[in-house]
Amino acid sequence: MPGTSPLSPRLPAALLALALAGGAAGAQEGTGAPAEAGGIPPDSTIGMVLAKHAESGCEDPGSEHMKRIPGLVSTLSPTATLFAVPCTASGPNTTYRLYVRESGEVGGLEVLKFATWTPDHGWTGTDLLYNIEIEGPRLRARFKAAPKGDCGTYAEWTWADYAYRLDRFAAEPDCRGRAVADWPIVYPPQ
């Protein structure tokens, strides 16, 4: 439970939010191994997520630049928990790297990959999403190509069994003051 996490208040906001929000998802799991990273057991779910994140090339979540950006946690199913850890921040955009911890029969920790689209390159894959919002099984991401946010990309996904399903992808290459709802739809094909 969030209020009973034994984690240190020295943790940056991103890690503390992950640890507290993910208490039931494994922040207190462990085998009694020595605590690291401000009190997080390295064999806990949070410890595994942070270790995997450290291998990613993302900015250190504890750095002065990143420590106030919260991480996000969401339960996707009885056996799957989503962890979104901030990766980079610049101007109006923050990127997140997303991980799913599966505690069911297969188990494990997976870095999620997503489809993205640009006019120059078409469809490609990425393990980073911009400015995400999570509501249960629903995930939204929006890249703001300009500070006003009137151009860029916008995507929506829904968790379906064991992966996110792309529901909608819109892209506006020209900053013309149009609302996201009016951006050209790339997927599904119109």
Give a written overview of the molecule:
With 190 residues, the chain is mainly beta. It folds into 2 domains: 84 residues, no CATH class; 78 residues, no CATH class. The chain is 10% helix and 39% strand. It has 2 helices and 12 strands; from the N terminus they run H-H-E-E-E-E-E-E-E-E-E-E-E-E. The strands form 3 sheets. Strands 1, 2, 3, 4 and 7 form a 5-stranded antiparallel beta sheet that branches. Strand 9 and strand 10 form a beta hairpin. The protein is globular. The relative contact order is 0.12. The N terminus is likely disordered.
List the helices and strands and how they pair.
Blueprint lengths: L12 H9 L23 H10 L17 E4 L4 E11 L2 E10 L5 E4 L2 E5 L3 E5 L1 E3 L2 E3 L2 E7 L7 E9 L2 E10 L12 E3 L3
Antiparallel strand pairs: 1-2, 2-3, 3-4, 3-7, 5-6, 8-9, 9-10, 10-11, 11-12
List the helices and strands in order.
HHEEEEEEEEEEEE
Question: Count of helices?
Answer: 2
Strand proportion = 35-45%
Radius of gyration: 17 Å
Q: Helical percent range?
A: 10-25%
The pLDDT mean sits at: 82
How many beta-strand runs? 12
Indicate the structural class. Answer: mainly beta
Assembly status:
single chain
Uncertain residue segments: 1-11, 22-38
| Mass-distribution shape | globular
Task: Tally the structural domains.
Answer: 2
Query: What is the CA-CA span between the terminal residues?
Result: 45 Å
Largest sheet: 5 strands, antiparallel
